[in-house]
TrEMBL record:
Enzyme Commission number(s) from the entry: 3.5.1.2
Family the entry assigns: Belongs to the glutaminase family.
Cited Pfam families: Glutaminase
Entry-linked PANTHER family: GLUTAMINASE (PTHR12544)
Gene label: glsA
Protein's name according to its UniProt entry: Glutaminase
Protein species of origin: Hyphomicrobium facile
Highest taxon in the source lineage: Bacteria
Reaction catalyzed: L-glutamine + H2O = L-glutamate + NH4(+)
Length: 307
């Protein structure tokens, strides 16, 4: 394989003319303020290499990428019992859709659509005050990224708390089916703060390392067992990009999780953890340029879970 640093620099240069492609999320007012011309790529290889280019050291709102970390934490607390409250099937619907919930008795299709992630946050909240649960999530993310400087952006969390009518609808609806253990505003407080975690591409690539390395961090610490890492990757592949998960698997061929902040975390098991960021989104709410960058990276490295 050619030099990885050179390779990502080439991809960056090739995509530079398309800077600003897509549309920045504006339904969360605070996210609408982000400069659409940002673009960064960071790669952490399992053999210890660290590569980055562009705006890879600038923090952005990780939004739904946080759902991977929330799920990891909730599975650690509740194990397989969590699957009684949330499914493992792709939804084929948008990330904030409510339609399936009625037919499926308030059990969200998977932990990566908003409804599923709200249930996961509700599970993390069990036995805690919202502040403690939020603190636990942040501590966990700092631990797996090995970086105590990671913070939650309070302006983003408040912005969503004020305008997140759909998420309130989802939470209220699930509560009516008995699938939310806490009042919706408490579970959503945890959810909005989790989504408002700010990270750089480099921090995100490091945080995702354990997923590509059989559950272990760079320093050897076992975050989760190997089989759980595999399963989280399986869910990222099938559900990580909502109703564009099939297209992402087709184009990139790696487990990935997107966020409306324009970030994507992708995992090449046994090879690398990759984070990209470009705020312009496609119509499914996934980073336009970020997806393109990952497609080129997968093509040129040969990384794929499909051989
Ligand atoms: N796809 C996303 O990143 C959505 C997360 C966002 N916080 C929301 O709830 O709408």
């Amino acid at each position: 394989m050619p030099n990885l640093q050179q390779l990502i620099e080439n991809i960056y240069a090739e995509l530079l003319p398309q800077l600003g492609a897509g549309k920045v999320a504006d339904y969360i007012p605070e996210l609408a303020k982000v400069n659409p011309r940002k673009f960064g790529i960071a790669v952490e290889t399992i053999d210890g290499g660290s590569y980055f280019v562009g705006d890879a050291e600038e923090s952005f709102s990780i939004q739904s990428i946080s759902k991977v970390f929330g799920l990891t934490l909730a599975l650690g607390k509740h194990g397989d019992a969590l699957w009684r409250r949330v499914g493992r099937e792709p939804s084929g619907s948008s990330f904030n859709s409510i339609v399936q919930l009625e037919h499926e008795n308030g059990i969200p299709r998977n932990p990566f659509i908003n409804a599923g992630a709200i249930v996961v946050c509700d599970a993390i909240l069990a036995g805690h005050r919202p502040k403690e649960a939020i603190g636990e999530i942040l501590r966990f993310v700092r631990q797996i990224a090995d970086d105590d400087t990671i913070v939650i952006d309070p302006a983003v969390a408040q912005s969503e708390q004020k305008t997140g009518y759909r998420n309130f609808a989802l939470a209220n609806y699930m509560r009516s089916f008995g699938n939310l253990g806490h009042p919706p505003d408490l579970a959503l407080g945890v959810y909005f703060h989790q989504c408002a975690i700010s990270m750089t591409c480099r921090q995100l690539a490091r945080a995702g390392f354990f997923l590509g390395n059989g559950g272990r961090m760079q320093n050897g610490f076992a975050v989760i067992p190997r089989e759980r890492a595999r399963r989280i990757c399986a869910l990222m592949l099938t559900c990580g990009h909502y109703d564009a998960s099939g297209d992402f698997a087709f184009r990139v061929g790696l487990p990935g999780k997107s966020g409306v902040g324009g970030g994507i975390l992708a995992v090449a098991p046994g090879e690398a953890s990759v984070a990209v960021w470009s705020p312009g989104l496609n119509r499914y709410g996934n980073s336009e340029l970020g997806t393109h960058a990952l497609q080129l990276l997968a093509e040129r490295t040969g990384w794929s879970v499909f051989g």
